[in-house]
Amino acid sequence: MPLLLGTTMALGMLFGFQLAGNSGRAGNSRTASGATQQLLDLLRYKYVDSVRIDTLETQAIETILQHLDPHTVFIPARELADANADLEGGFSGIGVEYLMINDTATVVYVVENGPSEKAGLQAGDQIVQVGNEPIAGKKMQGPDLRRRIRGAYNSQVSLGILRQGQPKTVTITRGNIPLPSVDAWYMATPTVGYLRINKFAETTYREFMDAANALLRQGMKKMVLDLRGNTGGYLTAATNVADELLPDNLKLVSTRGLHTKEKVIYSSKPGLFETGDLVVLLDEFSASASEVLAGSLQDNDRGTVVGRRSFGKGLVQEQYDLSNGGAVRLTVARYYTPTGRSIQKPFNGNRGDYMHEVLARHGADSLQAQLTDKVDSSQVFKTRKGKILYGGGGISPDVLVAFDTTRIPKTAIGLYNNGLLSDFSFLLFRQQQAAIRGYSSARAFAEGWQLPANAWERLLQMAAADSIQIGAVPASIKADVLQRVKANTARYVWRGTGYVQVMQPGDRVLQKALEILK
Fold this sequence. Notes:
There is one protein chain. By secondary structure, this protein is of the alpha+beta class. It has 16 helices and 22 strands. Strands 1, 2, 14, 15, 18 and 19 form a six-stranded mixed beta sheet that branches. Strands 4, 5, 6, 7, 8 and 9 form a six-stranded antiparallel beta sheet that branches. It has a six-stranded mixed beta sheet with strand order 11-12-13-16-17-22, with helices on both faces. β8 and β9 form a beta hairpin. α7 (204-217) packs parallel to α8 (235-245) and α12 packs across α15.
């Protein structure tokens, strides 16, 4: 039973955190009552042996939540800070990105003007000790290392590092580290601006306005808004962005629940991009608040939605703190698009089927099957201009770009496992760093820099050393893998913008958007 609870909780946490919808912290629940609490009290004060009441309490909470929807989740106290930081748009830490290479945390990026850069930390430094605790070679998981490195604002942490084999000690004063939600924006063509939002956090609207205004100054007449992989966040952040793209007094979204009054949100102010041509990109991992934004635009006949049907997570969560230091994100309502479509896809009570429904879509053997899979054609809705839309969960694209099941064949899957591709990309970047940093922009790098001629052979050798055997792959797959390696190296200098620009020529969804806007 503990193993079963742990497994189901892991799945629930994965989708509960990543697909958390309107996660505003709405109150506190500091008392418990009823038979469950009575039983815990009896075990605490009467049971013959010593028991871990906190563990039993957590298991009881998780078991109860298993009978509810898949997105009502319990967040243990040890994970609450990380879960909140993602939506708050930042945290207190040292400002580095790292990879676990050969069981050692290796710094791959240092935040510009952040605490680590001020203390002299560099990309390539290996972190072998935090405070007095050695950490190298311990196969430490990401959350465990983060908890050791992060801490209170203005506090200090001492890191033992290896730099080119030489030991050093660096003392870093922790500071506020942003977690950007608008992580890529650039001019994809002389008139088309590209902007990607990876989540909807407290800082998203301000980031969107800054990026969009910068693109307008560079000559943007048309926009590609990329919401692929955006698993949601704060509802207000999504509706604020929608308000900038739609005229006044249009319905954006409504929410309804058994114990909550119906709430309807309208556009209410002049927006910065209400008339220019617009394409919105979606995929099967676009969820919650990103579906609200896409649905508000599609239902109001604003722009074209391109890609694949979104996840179908239309549940509103509110976060309540618990007395054990954890919190529960509780579903309190459902989202409805302006035409009245429910965003939430069906849930038959089987969490496994629900979680893996997205993977089943990729098995569809035709474009039409991928487009209509699980969409209820009996639920017909019309926009103001007469466009026909269907209910049944998620936001279906106006223009489908089907998932390419041949993109990553089984013979090449090993390249994407265990972080191999990321590790190889960074090692290549470290060797070629001077040449890469010599380019003035990500565009210049994308157009001018070439991978070493033996990059593929070196990648296969690194895979074989890690007991990953790669069979023969078609030339197209080899080219795609190497393009991702190049994009990863660009990311170490130009972040998300560099990655997207390098990938643009082979990004079928983005290319379809540019074709529509041409």
